[in-house]
Each structure stands twice: as C-alpha cells, then as structure tokens.
Design brief:
Helix 5 (about 60-75) packs across helix 7 (about 90-110) and helix 7 (about 90-110) crosses helix 12. The chain is an alpha/beta fold. Strands 1, 2, 3, 4, 5, 6 and 7 form a 7-stranded mixed sheet that branches. Helix content is about 50%, strand content about 10%. The protein contains 12 helices and 7 strands. Strand 3 (about 165-175) and strand 4 form a beta hairpin.
Length: about 300
C-alpha cells in the first residue's frame, strides 16, 4: 500500500493526492469516522470476533479509508490501478469506492460543505446563505465515453464542446463557494432551458444580483435582478459604453470560472467519465463541489 505515514507528513504530497492539506484532512476525519459507523448495518455491528481478530483489512484505519476516498476523487484511478496501489483485488477497489464515497458525502454534509440541490423558497435561501451578496450562475460540462447507441450519442453531443458530455448548472457566490448544484443532464440541453427546468433563479432574493452570460438570454425578462451582457446586434456593433459594461461584468463573473476550476482539481469530475453505475457522475460532482467548499472554509 502507499506509505500513508510519509504522505501525511508532507503537505505537498497530501495536497497532490487528496486535494487537502493536513489541517483540513484532520478536520474532516472525525466527521468521516462518525458517518462511517452510522453507515454500518446492524449485521455489520454485531461482531462475532473481538476487535483485531480475523483477516487484516487493507484499509484498516479510518485514516486509510478517508485517504482512499479522497485519493479516488483527486486522481480518479482505474480499479486495476487502485488495486495495485492499495494491494487488493480490483473487485475490492470497486467495492471500497462505492462504499466509502457515500460516507464522504455524508461527512461533508455534516460540515455544511455540500451545495444545496434544490431550494423551495427565497426564505430557505436566506436562512441557508445569509451572508451572500451576489450570485453567478453558469453551466459546466465534463466529457463522457461516447455511447454506442446513436440516439444517446445525439442526446449527449454538446455543440459547445464538440464531444459527448454531461452537464451541471451551479450557482456560485463572491467567495467562490458552490451554493447550488443541479442534477446531471445530457450535454445537448441548452443552459437557459436547463435553468428554467431547475427553477434555480426563483429561490434567490431580488435584492441579490444574479450574474449570467449570454447563454441565458431572455432571463432578464423574467427576473428583476439579472445582470447579463449586451448582445451584439445582427449587422451592427456594440457601443463603447456597452463594450465597457461587458468587460466589467466579465471581470466580476470570472469568480464563477475560478470556482469551476477549483472543483475540477478533482480528476473524477474533469477527465473522461468511465463508470457504469447510474447517476454516479452526479455523486462525484456533488462530492467534488463539497470538497472545494470545505477547502475554502478550512483555508
């Protein structure tokens, strides 16, 4: 197995393999341990042997389990590679991954780091995010393996990225935190249509400006707090004032791109998605966004 003691002593190594420094790793560990014990079934808790008896597990300590789940998100190894690095069979790599990632998600939920999936009212937004001053909404895509079925190819083909993708919408605040995260959708769906179906903007108070790009054209006719750039008229040009306003808005909205870049430090949501479990890409994105928020809070 990888030398965990050496890795934990070197912040540079730990950040490279997990995305967290030692302080953040230690801060997350108690919540992860609590979530792990809560995830055990009554049958798992009824031991027939004393602690220490039986075959020794490869991921024996709680630090090992947390490190493995973070390592998977950060480096996104194949199960064959994970089996070599951690000295167990590839089937065990698969089993540990799908057993520990829900535990990591639960631990991040205890830390209030996970983005919300759905807010039903403005009051709920204010209660959950009382200090937010402005919100940026945008979509982000990640490539997937090309489906064999032609209909699924058409559904997932993104004209923006020129490849088959899956897409999320996210609302980000001025501190680069991911506040709201949509479910995963096929890459073909348009940003504006996606936002309308998610009703994400409806839960944000009118006093908080919502900054979007031209992919959400028409949203300014539905809400009073939308800030959107000027679209170049067909056959015409923007005025110098309009160009200056577009540049100002772009400089402010770059925070959203910085947040997506922070989330995609985790290769599990950046490189080509290759898992077969239904909606597992959505779980990976939620966990990666939660880890990014946790990193910002711990920094």
């Amino acid at each position: 197995m990888l030398d965990l003691e050496r890795i934990l002593k070197q912040d540079r190594l730990l950040r490279a393999l997990t995305g967290l420094n030692r302080k953040a790793f230690d801060d997350l560990l108690p919540s992860f341990a609590q979530a792990y014990w809560q995830s055990l079934t009554p049958l798992d808790r009824q031991r027939k042997r004393a602690l220490g008896g039986g075959r020794k597990a490869t991921l024996q300590k709680m630090e090992d389990k947390l490190f493995y789940s973070l390592f998977y998100c950060k480096c996104y190894p194949t199960f064959d590679l994970a089996s070599v690095l951690f000295h167990f069979d590839r089937s065990q790599a698969h089993e540990w991954t799908h057993r520990l990632l829900p535990v990591l998600e639960s631990a991040l939920g205890q830390k209030l780091a996970l983005p919300e999936r759905k807010l039903r009212s403005v009051e709920e937004f204010v209660e959950r995010f009382p200090a937010v001053k402005r919100v940026m909404i945008d979509g982000t895509e990640r490539p997937i393996q090309r489906p064999q079925d032609k209909e699924r190819q058409k559904e997932h083909y993104s004209g923006k990225k020129r490849r088959t993708t899956r897409k999320h919408l996210a609302a980000v605040d001025e501190r680069k935190r991911v506040l709201l995260l949509s479910s995963s959708r096929e890459g073909k769906v348009h940003d504006k249509r996606f936002l309308d179906e998610e009703a994400m903007a409806a839960a944000i108070p009118d006093a908080i400006p919502i900054e979007v790009d031209l992919g959400f054209q028409g949203l300014q006719n539905e809400y009073v707090n939308i800030r959107i750039g000027h679209k170049k008229p067909r056959g015409g040009e923007l005025t110098p004032e309009q160009q200056a306003e577009n540049k100002t808005l772009s400089r402010e909205r770059v925070v959203c791109e910085n947040a997506f870049a922070g989330v995609k430090r985790y290769n599990a949501v950046a490189v080509v998605y290759r898992n077969r479990v239904t909606d597992f890409d959505d779980r990976l994105m939620l966990i990666a966004a939660g880890l990014w928020n946790f990193y910002l809070n711990a920094a």
